[in-house]
Amino acid sequence: MKTGIFYGSTTGVTQDISERVGKLLNADVMPASDIDKIKDYDLAILATSTWGMGDLQDDWFDPLDKLKTMDLAGKKIAFIGVGDQEGFGDTFVDGIGIIYDEIKGKGITLVGKTSTDGYSFSDSKGADDGEFLGLVIDENNQSNLTDERIAAWVEKLK
Q1: Which structural domain range is residue 131 located in?
Q2: d(CA 110, CA 30)
Q3: How many domains does the chain contain in total?
Q4: What is the pLDDT along the chain (158 residues), one digit of tens a residue?
Q5: What is d(CA 51, CA 8) in angstroms, rounded to the nearest whole number?
């Protein structure tokens, strides 16, 4: 399965996580600004952090506008969300939820959900019924779990 990872990253953490996942999946990794290439992939992984009080990371503004107009029917989509559950527990990984809300009615197949067990947050647009929309990483508070979470998620996607 040809896989492309599209990321938006302000501090480099989301880019780093995307590259680590990409290496394990033998995926192409590129910035969100290359979203036009999504048509070339069987599986597209959309990676973002959340900024401010639940805001989408800046690199995703224009690509999300493009995504909303694309034919995504039949496309497999997975998410990587990066956030800080202790500092922003009421908007933890909202970024992936914001993107998902814009494309969920476009015939996509969401893959790669993960359990919210082991995280401590009060609210998230990136979670539904005990599951996150994808891989969720908190490098600020749980960096010791990052490698394990990435490995388990990649195995699930395979």
Answers
A1: 3-157
A2: 20
A3: 1
A4: 899 999 999 999 999 999 999 999 999 999 999 999 999 999 999 999 999 889 999 999 999 999 999 999 999 999 999 999 999 999 999 999 999 999 999 999 999 999 999 999 999 999 999 999 999 999 999 999 999 999 999 999 99
A5: 11
